[in-house]
Amino acid sequence: MTTQPRRDQLRDNLNRTREAIAAACSDAGRSPDSVRLIAVTKTFPAADAAALVELGQADLGENRDQEAAPKAAALAAAGLHPVWHFVGQLQRNKAKSVAAYADWVHSVDRAPLATALGNAASAHGRSLNALIQVSLDGDTARGGTPVADLAALAETIAAAPALTLKGVMAVAPLGWEPAEAFALLARCSETVQRVDPGATEISAGMSGDYRTAIFAGATMVRLGRNVLGERESMA
Ligand SMILES: *Cc1c(COP(=O)(O)O)cnc(C)c1O
């Protein structure tokens, strides 16, 4: 269980973050409901995640299956069913586990992973919303597909029965201006929409750069520290 002071802190952080997102939308000439907040609960306990859901935060994100699977199970056991977004690099052998609880996977970056997720979702009788993670600088070691491979991967995902292609995701590369990164991601989104016009989601923006991402058209921002506080170690 969360303590009351922690609950109050999470409520204040959440309110402040929602207001900041609404202000960024307003400054960018966008409707505040055009951006979805995903609270990234990685490294924080299931009790914090549960408290956020009880405070009305429906979308939660995690980046490691080893942590996400038990957290999702703990919330489900408490009768809480947030929309889970898997946002981290994903090994194919974890597809089966992730497909059991995730509603969205933001990090689909290669065809064999897409196929494994599709098969796993089918086996669980579920379907998954898939975003293609783009490696904007081509350094695929940090996850993401090279820009040149986007259309082919989009075709693969669009053809997988248990996957719904929803759009693109990226992390601004180290050393890049976020505005430059997110402008490139917007062009990647257009490439993917030529394969599937319904794939309009753009997952971009973390605690340090979400305003810039909203100006560049992000429809989902993934915020950890702004909502939960500083993490003890980088995950
Ligand atoms: C941790 C993480 C976030 C959230 O980062 P903050 O800086 O805490 O907002 C967003 N996206 C991904 C992929 C992450 O791993």
Automatic annotation (TrEMBL):
What functional role does this protein have? Pyridoxal 5'-phosphate (PLP)-binding protein, which is involved in PLP homeostasis.
Similarity annotation: Belongs to the pyridoxal phosphate-binding protein YggS/PROSC family.
Q: What is the protein's name according to its record? A: Pyridoxal phosphate homeostasis protein
Organism lineage reads as: Bacteria, Bacillati, Actinomycetota, Actinomycetes, Glycomycetales
Q: Which residue intervals define the domain Alanine racemase N-terminal in the entry?
A: 32-229
Q: One Pfam family from the UniProt entry?
A: Ala_racemase_N
Q: Which residues carry this modification: N6-(pyridoxal phosphate)lysine?
A: 42
Q: Which GO terms describe its molecular function?
A: pyridoxal phosphate binding
Keywords attached to this entry: Pyridoxal phosphate
NCBIfam families linked: YggS family pyridoxal phosphate-dependent enzyme (TIGR00044)
Instruction: List cofactor names only.
Output: pyridoxal 5'-phosphate
